[in-house]
Design goal:
The chain is mainly alpha-helical. It is built from 4 helices and 2 strands.
Length: 133
């Protein structure tokens, strides 16, 4: 066994996330940091649920777990682009569109995005969940 495998087994034994799971071979972070292996695996399962739910449905998910994306800023930019395209006849530009947030309490109680209550209809944009202050 290589030293990397031995180190990974030791970290798993200590219930910590192995560094090789968080970094690519060049040392760039490709995963999220969590204090324990259980939290890392739960995050992995929640991310899989969100992406699989998104891919397998014919319509969009009701809400998106924003912190579950590898690049959440890219997702928000895509939302802005979509709103801009919806108003192409009015000649909106991407620079004119702003992100506005309205906090809706206790609509989605799980981090995995399973909706337990009905969400209000939205005019434009998306619902997101999983943000904490």
């Amino acid at each position: 066994m290589t030293q990397s495998i031995v180190d990974s087994i030791g970290m798993i034994f200590d219930f910590r996330v192995p560094r090789s799971w968080q970094l690519d071979p060049t040392g760039v972070e490709i995963s999220w940091n969590t204090p324990s292996l259980g939290g890392w695996i739960k995050g992995l399962l929640d991310r899989h649920y969100q992406l699989q739910n998104w891919v397998s449905r014919t319509n969009r998910p009701v809400s998106y777990w924003l912190t579950g994306f590898y690049n959440p800023q890219g997702f928000l930019t895509a939302v802005l682009q979509e709103v801009t395209r919806q108003h192409a006849a009015e000649k909106w530009s991407l620079d004119q569109v702003e992100i506005k947030a309205e906090v809706i309490k206790d609509m989605i109680t799980n981090e995995d995005g399973r909706v337990e209550k009905s969400l209000p209809t939205r005019a434009q944009g998306v619902f997101i969940h999983g943000l904490f202050i």
